[in-house]
Every structure is written in structure tokens, then in C-alpha cells.
Amino acid sequence: MSNATQSLAGTRITSLLDANSFVEIGKSVTARSTDFNLTETKAPSDGVITGYGVIDGNLVYVYSQDASVLNGTVGEMHARKITALYDLAMKTGAPVIGLVDCAGMRLQEATDALEAFGSIYLKQTLASGMIPQITAVFGTCGGGMAIIPALTDFTFIESKKGKMFVNSPNALDGNYTEKCDTSAAAFQSEETGLVDGTGSEEEILGQIRQLIGLLPSNFEDNDSFVECTDDLNRTCDDITACAGDTSIALSRIADNGIFFETKKDYGKDIVTGFLRLNGATVGAVANRTEVYDAEGNKAEEFDGTISARGARKAAGFVKFCDAFDIPVLTLTNVTGFKATLCSEKMIAKAVGEMIHAFADATVPKVNVVIGKAYGTAYVAMNSKSVGADLVYAWDNAEIGMMDASLAAKIMYPGEEAAVLNEKAAVYRELQSNVESAAARGYVDTVIAPADTRKYVIGAFEMLFTKREDRPSKKHGTV
């Protein structure tokens, strides 16, 4: 309505929402400051269009910054419109979507603009875990504005024009844009762990629409259920071929083969994302050893270990799922932790965060061991010992301390190859065999890979009414 059809910021809103559903709020708001002749500059809606509408019938609140008005800068009234939108969203329990195209703080308003940023940060913090928050960056998102995506749950960035940075690339010692553009979509998605998806403006808006359809509106009312049109007893006959690239394996398990991956360019040894099982949204975390491109060619390969980036990515995702009462499914295929000097600086802390997230989550949790599950890395991946409600394992899985051959070399140093092979076979039978783990209760059921979909659907249906009390405290500190 009005501004929503007269500017690029408005066009983005109408492209995102269902047709003719947008209702603008605060159209007449303008800047109050008179310093530096600001009143002589026309500022329709003070550079941000705010309002509400629906996506596939789901209520959402949207703000879209207008770079054609004072470069989309944030001032007192600009921020007041956004915070008022957050107040409405929290009262009604609906997501907030921010479409960002902003030159940062409005210099003409100085401390008023600083207070404005602070007021947005506060509302985002209060809304965190209460309603989903999504940010899409279509232009500049610099300085204090870059903190706003960091305080939301999901962030998307336009691959060519989107720029996100706290300090501009040329302000970094020894760096310049041509050497390393730290503000570019590629750097932000691959190196910072902040970005969930990149693409054209049209692709990003499509991704947001798909994501909204998968998420509950708020932490109390889980309305992310749809009628399942897929066969609940469908077998996944080719799933073993997808055990390396678990983003594909998860799509085989999912209703109608649809899996929405998050942060797919960051920490690629771990896959995170959403799928539906019997019409209900489930969050998934899985180890990955291979990445295949759209043409089916192997693009990347990993060594089966967990990296610090992957662990931190998993931790944040599980915390989101727990906050919004979304069940968690894990696919485990891991041999240890990434062993590099760089990883060693962060791995203990990152894995600690991941274990804490799994152990602290009270939502239904199901784990399927689809390959190797060795050592502490296996324990960290939502094992029975850290709180998984049900653990399944494929009949070809291996669960134990370490690879049997390596264990034999450690236990029998200096022995001949024949002896080591014999001892390794015995170790494999006694300690690494999946039946051995099942006999101890660490695995609830050994299943055929093709039956994975049937078992996990049944598990989550059984766990639907799960309730779990925890020690009374304010919050954890990990």
C-alpha cells in the first residue's frame, strides 16, 4: 500500500508476501531532528517501510529499509518504527522479517541514532526464543547495523549487491577489498557462520517464504504442521549411497523429499536444516564426509571428523530448535575431532557448546547411527549418554572407542601383522560391533537403512507428548 508500491523497498515486501496482503503501519512518520537542516530533506516513512501481511496464510511482520531515503540510515524515528513492529509481533506471536539496505547510523542525529540502535538490539533480545527473526541483506549492512542480523535466527544475503561488515575491508590492517572482501556474501557465508543462504533477490525471498512455512509462529503455538501427502511407510532403498552427503540422505527421509539446509556454506562437515516427517517440522543435524553438486558430481570430501565450525553451527541450531519446541533428529557418522593447529584453538569450546545444546534440549531427540561412531565425537553427537530419547543404528554401523586396527596396534605394540589382524578382528567383534552396543542398551534398535524413515517417524510420534523437568536455575553458562 502507498510506499509499498513506490520504491524498491516496497517492492521487496510485496514480492515476499502473499498478493495484496501487506498493510503498512507508520506511513506518516518522519524524522524529528532539525540539526543540519534535516527538516529540509524529504524523508518518506523515515527511510523504512513497516507493516504486516501473510506468507502462505501465516501472519508475519516486515520492515524494509529504503536506501533512496537518506540512504536508509537509522535514526530515532526509523528505529522507533522497527521497535513498535517488534512490540506488535511479540504481543501477537508472529515472526519478524527485516529486509536490510542501510548505510548505517544517521550521522545528523548522533546520540539519538546511537540510542536508536540500542533500542532495536533490546527488542531483538527480548524477542529471541519467543518469535522467529529473519534478516535478508540486499544492499549495505555495515557498522552497528551488522549486529542486527547477528541477533536474529536466520540471515540471508544477496550474492552480488549484499555487503555486511562491522569494519569495512579497507579498514583492516594489511587488507583491502581486492585482496579479501570481508563484506562480500561469499566471505560472510563461508567464514563467519552468520549467513544461512545466498542468491539473487528473487531466490532469497523464495527461501524466506519456504522457511516461514517450516517454522512455528512462536515458542508456544507450534502451528508448523501440514497434512502429509507422502507414504509414511515408504522405504529409502538408495539411502546408503547418500551416507556421505547427509543433506541428500535427509531429503530421502523427508516428506516429499524436501530438506531445507541452513548455513550450508559454513562448517560443511556438519549438516543442519529442517524437514517434515508426517507433516511435522523436525530439525536435523548430521555428520557429512562428502558434498555433491547439483549435477551429482563430488565437489568436496571430508575426513569424517567434527570441526570447531561444524560443532558451533550444530550448537546454535539445536538451541533454536529447543527454544521453539522443534524435535531434533541426528544422523551420526563420525570418527573423531578435526586435528589441525587452527582447529585446536577452538575445538574444545565448540564441542562443549554442542554437547551442552544437545544435553540441555528437552525436545524429542532421536539419533540414527549410519556409519562409524567412534570415541568422544560419537558421544557428542546426541548419543544416549547425553540425552537422546531413542537411538537407532544401521546394521552396518560401527560403534566403539576407535577403529579396530588402530586399537590393536595400541594394545599390542610391536606384534606382527598377522597377530594385529587377528586381534583387530576380535576387538571389532567384541567392542565395535553394532550388536555389542545394542546389547549394552546404547542402541535401542538395529535397523535396515531402507527402513530409516519409518522408524524415525514412529519415534517422533511416540515422543510427541514428551515432558522433561530440569534442575531449577536461571540459565546455563556454556
TrEMBL record:
Residues 1-234 form the CoA carboxyltransferase N-terminal domain. Residues 231-462 form the CoA carboxyltransferase C-terminal domain. One of its GO terms (cellular component) is acetyl-CoA carboxylase complex. InterPro entries: AccD/PCCB, AcCoA_carboxyl_beta, ClpP/crotonase-like_dom_sf, COA_CT_C, COA_CT_N. The keyword Transferase applies. Signal peptide: none annotated. PANTHER family: PROPIONYL-COA CARBOXYLASE BETA CHAIN (PTHR43842), PROPIONYL-COA CARBOXYLASE BETA CHAIN, MITOCHONDRIAL (PTHR43842:SF2). This is Carboxyl transferase. It comes from Blautia obeum.
